[in-house]
Prior knowledge:
The complex is a heterodimer of chains A (128) and B (210).
Chain A: E1 4-7, H1 9-12, H2 17-29, E2 33-37, H3 42-55, E3 63-68, H4 77-90, E4 96-101, E5 105-110, E6 115-119, H5 120-127
Parallel strand pairs in A: 1-2
Antiparallel strand pairs in A: 2-4, 3-4, 5-6
Helix pairs in contact in A: 2-3
Chain B: H1 3-19, E1 22-27, H2 34-45, E2 64-73, E3 76-84, H3 94-99, H4 104-124, E4 130-136, H5 144-155, E5 160-165, H6 174-180, E6 186-188, H7 197-207
Parallel strand pairs in B: 1-3, 1-4, 4-5, 5-6
Antiparallel strand pairs in B: 2-3
Amino acid sequence: MLTLQFVPHSEITDLNSEKKIQKLLKIVREEKIILLEGKLHSNEKSELIRKTMEEIDERFKGIEIEELDAQAKDQAFLQKIRTVFINLLLGSRRGLTIIGPASIIKEIKKDPDKIQLFTEEQKKKKKK
Amino acid sequence: MGLFGNFLKKFLKALFAKKGQIKLGIYGPPNGGKTTLANKITMDWLGEEMGSVSPIAHETREIQIKEQITVKSKNKELTFNLVDTPGIATKIDYEEFIKQGMEEKEAKSRAKEATKGVIDSIKWLDDMDAVVVVLDSTKDPYSQVNITIIGNLEARKIPVLIVANKIDLKKSDIKKVQAAFPQYDVIGISAKVGTNIDAFYEALFKLTNR
């Protein structure tokens, strides 16, 4: 059974980077797929990769991660200005990040406005 | 990294600082051709190879350094210390190595070393003066590993040159790499065959403001 866990921005906004990453990794290690509201900073992503590497063992193979932007690609000028202001106000709250255990998610494809998750089961079915 | 590792890193840092030379890092995901490019550079300018290459991912699992490489082009000279880094990945599965013909013990050991290699690569980001990010131009450039590496370099204000490698292969698509990172210089090369390598050396001068 596939379990998705939504993590709202409010749940991690007061945490420092270390605590934030600990929380996310704990959920992933419970074999759940995280739908995180917003995006991680680049230094948080590299720290997440680093911590993931520290925890890899025979059971835990690592993570898959992908982000989806909330911003439309072909925006008019005024819309772009509006987006800049919204980003200033909401910061990293915009967009969506998917993080899951590599043992369950084999591949994430971004198209770029939609995300496709290929799980272990789907891969096996595909091979048939 | 253990005590010896920390000592080694400090020692190498001090050594570089004394000489005041540029540290040019080669970063990227596994199997993009980082060591093939490093070998091409060191063969061209030192006459010796830097490290071994393999079709199996994570062949480079330790930071490799070659000092005092001087590249010459059109009356200009650029001397740097080349730092070849292990590929950065979000997952490492020893069973993938077994599928490629390794014994279980060897596969597990390779996976363990590979995780340490990724950690070292990330730690060394802060030490670089300029970085060449090597991407496999036959693959999707929009991966979170690529975005994270480039995002981290941008945050640290480290100059970046993106190399779209493997342009000798049919599936290569440089335009896709350029479209993914429009704010950076992207040079299409084949490190293995040597295609466009002169343009790459020229780009190094621009990257390091020489």
